[in-house]
Design goal:
It is a single chain. The chain is an alpha+beta fold. The chain has one domain (15-99). It contains one helix and five strands, in the order E-E-E-E-E-H. It has one helix at residues 86-99, and strands spanning 20-25, 31-35, 40-47, 50-57, 69-76. Strands 4-3-2-1-5 form a five-stranded antiparallel β-sheet. The longest helix is centred in the last third of the chain and has 14 residues, at 86-99.
């Protein structure tokens, strides 16, 4: 188990709001937009010098693949949340600059 398992206080899956931006504990990023359909958070992942949108599944949604625990709601995402959305990619870049 990774460090996420040690986080005891977090927002349960049922309390997460679709299109809400959250501060999260996760394997690949610290800020994500909750996607109700996928039960996960879309955020900016960096791997092998590439940066792309990726979904981390909420801890409560899947005991095997759940890797994200939200700890704070920050704001609403004003965009359609689709992993292939260039506007969302640019918005997340700005979010990471703002909150980091």
């Amino acid at each position: 188990m990774g460090f996420t398992a040690n986080i005891k206080e977090y927002i349960p899956l049922g309390n997460c709001k679709h299109s809400g931006l959250y501060k999260i504990y996760a394997r690949n990023f610290s800020y994500g937009v909750f996607n109700e359909k996928d039960k996960g958070f879309i955020g900016m992942r960096q791997k092998f010098h590439l940066t792309y949108l990726f979904t981390e599944i909420h801890w409560d949604a899947d005991e095997t693949y759940g890797t994200a625990k939200p700890i704070e709601f920050l704001e609403w995402c004003p965009l359609n949340i689709d992993e292939d959305n260039e506007e969302l990619f640019e918005w997340m870049k700005e979010i990471n600059k703002h909150y980091l």
